[in-house]
Design a protein that fits this description.
This protein is α+β, with helices and mostly antiparallel strands. It is 16% helix and 35% strand. The chain is globular and about 30 Å long. 21% of the residues are buried.
Length: 77
């Protein structure tokens, strides 16, 4: 079974971040936004062509490209 990542969330879906595998310097940016293990994330919007999507992270609305969202694993346990 393929690991579920942030990019798999559809508008209205929520999950907890499991692990951020994004290379630096984007990892540092995600960390500054509070996108770390255990953080609740909700997908609020998806652009008409599916990329990027907007996620609610610690009270901030953040647009993340699909390619980058695929590097954020969700906690499935």
């Amino acid at each position: 079974m393929k690991e579920k990542t942030l990019s798999a969330l559809r508008p209205g879906d929520a999950a907890l971040v499991g692990e951020v595998r994004t290379p630096s310097p984007l990892r540092e940016h995600f960390t500054a936004l509070g996108l770390i293990a255990g953080t609740p994330v909700t997908c609020l919007l998806r652009s008409p062509f599916g990329d990027p999507s907007a996620y609610l992270i610690r009270g901030a609305l953040v647009a993340i490209r699909r390619e980058d969202a695929e590097t954020v694993a969700l906690n499935t346990g």
